[in-house]
Amino acid sequence: MITTKYYWIFMFMHLHIKQEEDDITICECKYNTNDPDSACGERCLNVLTSIECTPHYCPCSVHCKNQRFQKHEYAKTKLFRTEGRGWGLLANEDIKAGRFIIEYCGEVISWNEARERSLAYASQGINDAYIISLNARECIDATKSGSQARFINHSCEPNCETRKWSVLGEVRIGIFAMRDISIGTELTYDYNFQWYGGAKVHCLCGATSCCGFLGAKSRGFQDTDVWEDIDERCSLEDKPSLSMRPESMPKKRSKNNHNGPSRPLNREQVDAKFVAQFLASKEAQEEILKYEEQREEASSHLHLLYKDEVEPSIKENEIYGIDGVPASVAEKWIRASCMKLKAEFNLHSSIIRNIACTPQRAPDEAQPSEGEPKP
């Protein structure tokens, strides 16, 4: 095995995106000197949506607790040599469940370059390829330079997990504790290893629910070319370069729902004009028609907003998909969606109330609205 030169870094190696002021999400927290947890704690809107507060914009100022990636607020850890699995990382203090432990740092590269590097590493005899998926277009390569998170081993029963956060407009990956971890315990997380074919690698995590092989849950996994335990290539330290770890490979949703009857995609719209003609009260008719007009306006506004702002933003930031939509546009979309739902609720409530409480015309007196067949 060829030893790879490794450079320890603690910064996110990326071509930084300039965050526009309109895209900065500002929380509503207010710092209370008598309550230190009031400064962007668990109830902070940004924390709940996995967004770090932006310095100089957070209402809690220097007291803000939601800048852990930016301030490198890592838990105390320690490198150690495992038995048969290369290097590992220990908790060097008691770690509470949910705590941010360390950021997975490295060089951000495209998926195409990741594949090229994977082959290049293999040709150079470098079997330690620490490549993890960042998003649909990019990966983090910590093979030659990265944080100590690269030494965290895989386990089928992990005590940590990876989470994606938005930090100053960029997607970052952190390792978080899934449960309370005692000092001296090895840190592990599930690589979600994707098997690309070829020889299989035994999983050496030792968990009671171990799958037996890395990538055993991948499609196309077949019982061929198994590496024996005595083969030194079995260790996670020496895993093949094809073992790129797409920790959040998007899962395709099944088109068919087998857990119950499929729900219709399209709902029939209420013909408010037709319903209004059954009401004898002119005031009731005008009320229903007014809410129908508001619903049409809200629906039209929502459609135009998607066409003019949301869709162009998705295309412009196709690397991040819908996650790349600016916060200002997302807020407009949420507000417009709420207005549409409110308009629909008002219309349906008005129809039910007026049908139940106001006199109605005889069926032969009512006429269908334009474009509707006569009853």
TrEMBL record:
<dbReference type="InterPro" id="IPR006560">
    <property type="entry name" value="AWS_dom"/>
</dbReference>
<keyword id="KW-0808">Transferase</keyword>
<protein>
    <recommendedName>
        <fullName>Histone-lysine N-methyltransferase ASHH1</fullName>
    </recommendedName>
</protein>
<keyword id="KW-0539">Nucleus</keyword>
<feature type="domain" description="AWS">
    <location>
        <begin position="22"/>
        <end position="73"/>
    </location>
</feature>
<dbReference type="GO" id="GO:0046975">
    <property type="term" value="F:histone H3K36 methyltransferase activity"/>
</dbReference>
<keyword id="KW-0489">Methyltransferase</keyword>
<keyword id="KW-0158">Chromosome</keyword>
<dbReference type="Pfam" id="PF17907">
    <property type="entry name" value="AWS"/>
</dbReference>
<feature type="domain" description="SET">
    <location>
        <begin position="75"/>
        <end position="192"/>
    </location>
</feature>
<dbReference type="InterPro" id="IPR046341">
    <property type="entry name" value="SET_dom_sf"/>
</dbReference>
<dbReference type="Pfam" id="PF00856">
    <property type="entry name" value="SET"/>
</dbReference>
<dbReference type="GO" id="GO:0005634">
    <property type="term" value="C:nucleus"/>
</dbReference>
<keyword id="KW-0949">S-adenosyl-L-methionine</keyword>
<feature type="domain" description="Post-SET">
    <location>
        <begin position="199"/>
        <end position="215"/>
    </location>
</feature>
<dbReference type="GO" id="GO:0000785">
    <property type="term" value="C:chromatin"/>
</dbReference>
<dbReference type="InterPro" id="IPR050777">
    <property type="entry name" value="SET2_Histone-Lys_MeTrsfase"/>
</dbReference>
<dbReference type="InterPro" id="IPR003616">
    <property type="entry name" value="Post-SET_dom"/>
</dbReference>
<dbReference type="InterPro" id="IPR001214">
    <property type="entry name" value="SET_dom"/>
</dbReference>
<feature type="region of interest" description="Disordered">
    <location>
        <begin position="238"/>
        <end position="266"/>
    </location>
</feature>
<dbReference type="GO" id="GO:0006355">
    <property type="term" value="P:regulation of DNA-templated transcription"/>
</dbReference>
<dbReference type="GO" id="GO:0032259">
    <property type="term" value="P:methylation"/>
</dbReference>
